Amino acid sequence: MNQESVYPQCWDNQHIYPGLDSLELEADLALARRRLGELADFMGELTTACEEPGARLTFLRKVRQRAQGIRNIGWNIAVLAASAASQNAQDPLAKTQASRARALNADLFKTLAPMEQLLLTLPDADFDALMADALLGEEAFRLRHERRLADQRLPVAAEQLVIGLGSDGLHAWGNLYSELAGRLRLRVEGRELGLAQASNLLSSGDRALRQQAQSAISHAWEGEQETVAAILNAINGWRLELARQRGAQSGRPLDALSLSCHQNRIERVTLDAMMSASYERRELGQRALGVMGRRLGIKRMSVADLAAPAVARPGQGIPFAQAIDWIAEAFASFDPEMGDFARMMAERGWIDAAPSPHRQSGAYCTKFADPVEPRVFLTYEGSMRNLVTLAHELGHAWHNWLLRDLPMSQRAYPMTLAETASIFAETLVRSALFERAEEGDREAIAWMEADSAATFLLNIPARFDFEQALVRERAQGYVGSVRLKALMDDAWGRWYEQSLEEYFPLFWAAKGHFAIPGLGFYNYPYLFGYLFSLGVYGQLMARKGAGETGVAQAYRALLRDTGRMSAEALVTKHLGLDIRTSAFWQQSLERVEEAVNRFADLSQWHAESATDVTRSS
Description:
This protein is mainly α. The protein has 26 helices and five strands. It has a domain at about 25-170: Up-down Bundle (Butyryl-CoA Dehydrogenase, subunit A, domain 3), CATH 1.20.140.70. It has a three-stranded mixed beta sheet, with helices on both faces. The chain has helices spanning about 5, 25-45, 45-50, 55-85, 90-120, 125-130, 140-145, 155-170, 170-185, 195-200, 205-220, 225-250, 255-265, 270-280, 285-295, 320-335, 335-345, 385-400, 415-435, 440-475, 480-495, 505-510, 525-545, 550-560, 565-575, 580-615, and strands at about 185-190, 190-195, 350, 365-370, 370-375. It is globular and about 75 Å long. Pfam families: Peptidase_M3 (PF01432), Peptidase_M3_N (PF08439). Belongs to the peptidase M3 family. Keywords: Hydrolase, Metal-binding, Metalloprotease, Protease, Zinc.
């Protein structure tokens, strides 16, 4: 196959900035710094200006208007630098410009800290009066949500210190992990590979190759385990100490998981209901692994088999252009504009997916602030798993595109709701592929659904359990690599039980999610998004099947509210359901059970067909 037919081009960001070393970027950065200095001088008048309500409103409006342009510049440079680092984790200019963008954003937030303190601590009547203003009211939901933790705020000077130290303190640890992952070199079958390329080999149909890749990945992280242990201890130690300081300030200590729920805009009871329902049905994920193993001729799946593809008929990889066509057609079957959007992303060079030596592993969607444009990153090598990952990230991109005309604060949705659009997109694509596939290919589609069941009902909860244990033990002192491996084994044992031949004790080092500094408990939102999106998908498709019009528009309306409502309020408004009860999650789990049953039936059919052929011959 011609490589050019498989791989897309790299990102085209020329209209944002010609490059990280461009004169245009330097000019904008200098402009932002100059405007930030002027804003800092202006903020010196805050106390005097806020003595009278009318003057306070005028002053705060001016601050908001001045700050937005500065933030857009810092945001755009940060995204451009992070994008360059994803393509090449060893790019020194990407690190430099990312550092300068972080410093600009940190200085902006430090400058705005007195205003934030004012807005979060004003009496309700005064606050409500300010939020009645069209401009200031754009942030009404965010501010009302943050006012719930107003008692946790430190004095302004201390908050400014936390922001300032975070850039080269807390966030530096996450940057170190990304740099470490980007420079790891592995040898598989005599070839030197980057981590992303080696990770893609885990999706190979050749079990021996998968085992070599897994062994190489484990060996690479074994050599870096003490560094990663230091990173995880530093990040969690920072969070715990900050929480202690805030708790001492308020007299109301807030544990790490409650803070995570607040950041994800869900109630703790909602999380507990979801996790409890999932644990009760963990056998669905275990059963999926069992069927996958039998189909592969394996007594029990190993870690190297968790990303194995379906047993497929011989064929070539899926060219990138074909993947875009299939995704666009699947999207269009639900919403024609969504299909057009997928094609536009490829045509405009907003997807970067070509393998490269120093490329970071994983996939993500990001966005620029001005113009508001999404970008997708992944490493595409033609597998069905790559195609579904591409659909997942394009779902995120569609979500961002639908919000592009909203104020920035209303475009910032929590992770719990972020995964709704991505997994909804995956489900659309898998369903469409299943319908169009020949009988012999349907098992591969059902395989992906079973794979999702195993990932979301076993792997994601195991990550959550591990992180809970890490936080508990870190509160007592440093948690070394030996103990981290034991905690990971315990977490996998609780969820996988006997469904795997062995566990992956170094998963805490290999999975970058644990080293993301800005948000603790990064993983349970994926389970939330998986089950929630299945619920949304089921409801909307039932309405569409009943001939109801405006279903695509109803979905768009739900997504547009994700940055300005809690998860509970969003579901009540758009679906009329209560996610704080186990019943909501059980309905979604019933859909998972249907998918696992379908996979088991297809696998049994294929096994019997193969036996019949053998007998005939």
